[in-house]
Amino acid sequence: MLSIQAIKGLTGQILTSIFNISSLKTIAPVIAYQV
C-alpha cells in the first residue's frame, strides 16, 4: 500500500514537472515576442 502511494506521488511530481516545463516553453516565446 505504501509503495503504491509512493509511486502515485512520484508519478504526480514527474507529470507536474513536465507540465511546468511545457508551460514555460509555451509561455516564454510569447513573452519574448511581446517584449
Describe the protein in words.
It is a single chain. This protein is mostly helical. Helix content is 94%, strand content 0%. The protein is built from one helix and no strands. The longest helix is centred in the middle third of the chain and has 33 residues, at 2-34. The termini are far apart.
Give the rounded overall mean pLDDT. Answer: 89
Weakly predicted, low-confidence segments: none
Biggest sheet record: none
Rg calculated over all Cα atoms: 15 Å
The number of helical segments is 1
Number of DSSP E strands: 0
C-alpha geometry: rod-shaped
Structural class: mainly alpha
- N-to-C order of helices and strands: H
Strand content: under 5%
Helical content stands at over 70%
Distance between the termini: 50 Å
A few lines on this structure:
The chain is mainly alpha-helical. It has 1 helix and no strands.
Essential attributes:
94% helix; mainly alpha; rod-shaped
Topology:
Elements: H1 2-34
